[in-house]
Amino acid sequence: MNERTTSRETRYVRAGSDPHRQGGYVNPPVHHASTVLYRDVAEMDASQADPLKRGTPVYGRFGTPTSRAFEEALAELEGGHAAVATCSGLSAITTTILAYVRTGDHILVSDSVYLPTRKFCDSLAALGVETEYYRPDADGAAIEELIRPRTRLLYLESPGSTTFEVQDVPAITAVCRARGVATVADNTWATPEFCRPLALGAGVDAVVHSATKYLTGHADSVLGAVVCTEESYPLIRGAAIRLGQCASADDVYLGLRGLRTLSVRLGRHQEQGLELAGWLAGREGVAAVLHPGLPGDPGYGLWRRDFTGASGLFAVELEPGFGKPDIDAMLNRLRLFGLGHSYGGYESLIVPADPVSHRLPGSWAGRGPLIRVHVGFEGLADLKQDLEAGFAALLAGG
Ligand SMILES: Cc1ncc(COP(=O)(O)O)c(C=O)c1O
């Protein structure tokens, strides 16, 4: 679809959609498929001529019309060349990193990344790949000082999904592009609705998603995706093929269905999230609310410049001094905020978080305990009442 003549709203509805490719039905069928049968040997041979297995049906693991429809729609919404669906967000991340690194390489990773991403990067030492973490609150252009001749890749998450630092991605991509370092961004928090890192400054080389979260949006699937440029696509699709990456038929269908309403849902997450974050900021027991959309947040300026909105995920830093029993008492008192991992669904969630245990020395020392909040679609008055009860339990002590 032509971006200049088509509004954002229309793109959500039409991206990757071709009802007449599927007998006129609005949505593609869910292809539960492994084997693809050929009419004759010539057709079988022709299917082998496509090394990235993109256009021709070959075998279920290489994709089906359902996964292609999801990939096409997401690539269009992110402004990418093509996308690769994977079985989870973490598999999208590991596949992309493995596509780039070789023994002897050095990679830069922001200190604020999702913890399993960090654990995977640490495990690369066994393959002879050195991971160096950089502070996400440092000046973006200062990344130049950390680049070595062996630096192959910079991986970032902005904002970080626990501590919400926003990075100067245009400054980082400018330096990396000039120095021949590939960049990959996890865009799970913002989604293409609120940020498109492929177009930020010099642009990243690939965007990874936990489609499990906002893209699918209903806490009913586990799915990942990588959106690539024309240059990065063969590398990343090739790695996905070699690693045996694929996504289940039902999950890619749910991912595609989620994309159709992403814009509407994200608008509501933003509205409710900002309102609740502002309300929490003034409460007794709260040291800070970590939400880049709040004026006064350290990331607010960059967020205003590079993002068009904020999703419903943020963190509350409690006053230092609250211990585990106090926080347990608070969380156990909540009735609407579900105590559970993940985010991006229609339901509100809350989890305690402990960045101190794994962050760079000094980056979180001395700060209060964190709780991470995901704001869903329940009534705001109900959510506030629930939190009021939780804070009463916190302040009363565990
Ligand atoms: C920012 C971010 N990236 C990646 C992942 C991993 O996604 P998945 O659970 O789909 O593997 C998560 C999951 O919480 C996440 O928050």
Tell me what you see in this structure.
This protein is of the alpha/beta class. It folds into two domains: 253 residues, Type I PLP-dependent aspartate aminotransferase-like (Major domain) (Aspartate Aminotransferase, domain 2); 135 residues, Aspartate Aminotransferase, domain 1 (Alpha-Beta Complex), CATH 3.90.1150.10. It is built from 13 helices and twelve strands. The strands form two sheets. The chain has a seven-stranded mixed beta sheet with strand order 1-7-6-5-4-2-3, with helices on both faces. The chain has a five-stranded mixed beta sheet with strand order 8-9-12-11-10, covered by helices on one side. Helix 4 packs across helix 8 and helix 12 runs antiparallel to helix 13. The longest helix has 20 residues. It starts with 7 loop residues before the first helix and ends with a helix.
TL;DR?
This protein has about 400 residues and is an alpha/beta fold.
Topology (SSEs and partners):
Layout: H1 8-14, H2 41-47, H3 65-78, E1 82-86, H4 89-100, E2 106-110, H5 115-123, E3 130-134, E4 151-157, H6 169-179, E5 182-186, H7 191-194, E6 206-210, E7 224-228, H8 232-243, H9 249-260, H10 262-281, E8 286-290, H11 300-306, E9 313-318, H12 324-333, E10 338-339, E11 349-353, E12 370-374, H13 380-396
Parallel strand pairs: 2-3, 2-4, 4-5, 5-6, 10-11
Antiparallel strand pairs: 1-7, 6-7, 8-9, 9-12, 11-12
Bound molecules: pyridoxal-5'-phosphate.
